Amino acid sequence: MHRILQPEGWVAPRGYSHGVAAQGTIVSIAGQIGSNAQGQLESDDFAAQARQALANVLAVLLQAGGGPQHIVRMNWYMTSRAEYMAAGKAIGAAYKELMTGAGGKVYFPAMTAVEVTALLDPRAKIEIEATAVVPN
User: Fold this and answer.
1) Cβ-Cβ contacts under 8 Å for 75 (sequence gap 6 or more)
2) H runs (alpha helix) in the chain
3) Which of 125, 91, 134 is nearest to 111 (CA)?
4) What's the mean pLDDT in 43-67?
5) Which of 27, 100, 124, 136 would bridge 33 by S-S if both were Cys, CB 3.0 to 4.6 A apart?
6) Cβ density class 68-90: b for 16+ within 10 Å, e for less
7) What are phi and psi of 102, to 5 degrees?
């Protein structure tokens, strides 16, 4: 299992955790963009690409027997901070939908979000990579 690391006296972060400690099988998930199973981007909408990229991360994790509750770290690389901020409500709704586990709990791993000049696919606007720890 894992536990959230929240130093005493620190303000609780919104939408992520400062840190996560875990034991089990480590699953490293390569950066996923918002493409479908055939590797094609179906939308140029930022929120739609973010939702699909997160769904892709979870699809890979499922192959290791894991789910959203096992993700301990995510890195989000985006080509536009402004587009990310403008799509915040839609991204938040997709995140809540996809990162909710049993019992209706939304999971917030340690996260980093970085604006980059470009991604390998010229149409891609966001890429998400993750690390999960699935209990043995």
Assistant:
1) 31, 111, 112, 113, 114, 128, 129, 130
2) 46-62, 81-86, 88-98
3) 91
4) 97
5) 124
6) bbbbbbbebbbbeeebbeebeee
7) -60, 140
